[in-house]
Amino acid sequence: MFQVPPAVFAAFPMPCLVLAAEAPEYAVVAVNAAFGRLVPGAEEALLHGSAAAAFPGPKELLDASLTQVIATKQAHTLPVQAYRQPSTAAQPATTRYGRPENTPVLNEAGEVAYVLHTVADVPVPPHDAGLPDHPEALMVFDLAGIARRANDRLEQLTQLPNEALLGQHFSHFIAPDDRERVAEHFRRAAQGQPQHYVAESSPAAGRRLQLRLMNLPQLVDGEIVGVYAIAQDITKRWETNQAIIEREHRFRVAFDSIADVIFILDVHPDGGYSFNNVNRAFVATTGLPVEQVVGRNVAEIIPEPALQMVLGNYAEAIRSRQRVMWEETSDYPSGQITGEVSVTPVFDDNGRCSQLIGIVHDLTAQRQADARQKKMAQEMFRQNSDLQQFTYIVSHNLRAPLANAKGFASLLTRVDKDSEVFSTSLTNLQTSLQQLDGIMQDVTDILSIRDKQKAFGKPETVSLAAACQQACRSLEKALQESHGTVNMAISEDLLLQGNRAYLYSIFYNLLSNAIKYRAAERPLVVDIEAHAEGASLALTIADNGLGFEQGPSDKDVFQLYQRFHTGPEGRGIGLFLVKAHVEAMGGIIEVRSQVNQGSCFTIRFN
């Protein structure tokens, strides 16, 4: 509870209320005697009631002021208000004018617990006074807006004799751009509503000045007969504010023109961090608008898993009192961003870190280029290895049939055409040439695959179930002859972004191998399953065939012309084709196999 020493409160000359800092009522918890004189009966009527009952102006105006004071923890002055005092046996009804101000009262935790609501008296001379002693420049206008009287302070302000100003309409004293707005304030004051505003004077009024103006209704016997205009020269203050605004504008322009991301964090006593400001590059890089960032806690903006590392680096910068740098990758609305981040601590006069200034140099394009280059290098290395292997194997495989063909061709020139040796040599020559033709066809097929992989265009949406069913139909006769069974567990709605022909080739070659290398002592069974694993898709094709003995690496299985069985015949390029097609669609393939148990191929696509 707010405790006020009675003697202090009673002696306080300015009208004062103590308000609880709790919306929406802002209850009155204390009323001093001066406020009771300003608003007769206030001490009994207002205590524990709403603050709005003690304020003659709109409740929205008071609420906005109190909300601002509680949020900023700074005092706020309201426009001049008219406090009407009812007539008594001793005196007629009067109106006093006062300027209310709300001042925060903080508790031990530094939070606003109460608001001190004071009212400063605004002197208004009586109707028949000569106006010489009023502290500010003052003019009296009739209801038509014509200047009738002015005090000496006005001459000092305008540096013109009052005789040159009297008899002029109030618009004569106001700069053209402000006249319409000032006319509205004058109209409201003539209706009994005190006005408080800033306007620029006209050169015709002597000097061009920035003026803080108050318009108060002039009352005679309870009736409004004119309007008081009280003017205060704030030109120097206005010019200073304009200079500050201009500096802030130049800072903002410079701040936003920097290509690197810049952010300013407020460091809270509880160890939290919130965004105080961000530049245009921050918005463009992250895709987050300023209003969704400024004022928010960093935990609401920086996603995991980077957040914990970031918080640790903030703490290290404060502890070491030095700049800390690191590389960070995070996901934002604009995509995944990689940047080189640095934060520098800023300390106040008490040695407490009040802010962190952060700079982020966007490395996203560079890291993406590095990744592409690394992938390209790996692909070139793989292709070079494949090319070396291909060159070696082809030259090795060509050597025997070519040597045989040359030998048989030479022999044919030396033997009788009608002899059995000639006939047998001719048959062997034809066999050797067929082998050469098969090898050249393999070369053509493999080079064609490489060309197609390089030209692999935009992926299409392919149904895995449909591609598998198409391969099964193509091998239906071979499956029937081998008494084989294919069990397919692939959902019809399981789709892949890839190449339809490649998927068909994968299913066809693996099914064809399963049929070709089945075990004679048991019926062939092939199980095909596919399912999603998060953002990936897993496909397995398992058979109960002959199997084979695996080497130390899966890569050996997929090499060109790699064969694991002496019969039946095969070209040794089927698994090479499967791997090429899988990798062309960004996938990987693995195999597990045991002799006389069967083989299981697992393919994963992102």
Topology:
Blueprint lengths: L5 H6 L4 E5 L7 E4 L1 H6 L3 H5 L12 H14 L3 E2 L3 E5 L8 E13 L5 E11 L14 E6 L4 E4 L1 H7 L20 H12 L4 E6 L9 E11 L2 E11 L1 H23 L3 E7 L5 E6 L1 H7 L11 H4 L4 H15 L3 E9 L2 E13 L5 E10 L1 H49 L7 H35 L5 E4 H11 L1 H6 L3 E5 L5 E4 L1 H17 L8 E9 L2 E8 L30 H11 L3 E7 L3 E8 L1
Parallel strand pairs: 18-20
Antiparallel strand pairs: 1-2, 1-6, 3-5, 4-5, 5-6, 7-8, 7-11, 9-10, 10-11, 12-13, 12-16, 14-15, 15-16, 17-19, 20-21, 21-23, 22-23
What attributes characterize this protein structure?
alpha+beta, 5-stranded antiparallel beta sheet, phosphoprotein, 606 residues, elongated, 6-stranded antiparallel beta sheet, Beta-Lactamase, 16 helices, 5 domains
Protein architecture, described:
There is one protein chain. This protein is an alpha+beta fold and 606 residues long. The protein folds into 5 domains: 6-122, PAS domain (Beta-Lactamase, 2-Layer Sandwich); 137-238, 2-Layer Sandwich (Beta-Lactamase); 258-362, Beta-Lactamase, CATH 3.30.450; 371-453, Helix Hairpins (Orthogonal Bundle), CATH 1.10.287.130; 460-605, Histidine kinase-like ATPase, C-terminal domain (Heat Shock Protein 90). Helix content is 38%, strand content 28%. It is built from 16 helices and 23 strands. It has helices at 6-11, 33-38, 42-46, 59-72, 152-158, 179-190, 235-257, 280-286, 298-301, 306-320, 364-412, 420-454, 464-474, 476-481, 500-516, 574-584, and strands spanning 16-20, 28-31, 76-77, 81-85, 94-106, 112-122, 137-142, 147-150, 195-200, 210-220, 223-233, 261-267, 273-278, 324-332, 335-347, 353-362, 460-463, 485-489, 495-498, 525-533, 536-543, 588-594, 598-605. Strands 1, 2, 3, 4, 5 and 6 form a 6-stranded antiparallel sheet that branches. It has a 5-stranded antiparallel sheet with strand order 8-7-11-10-9. It has a 5-stranded antiparallel sheet with strand order 13-12-16-15-14, with helices on both faces. Helix 13 (464-474) packs across helix 15. The mean pLDDT is 84.
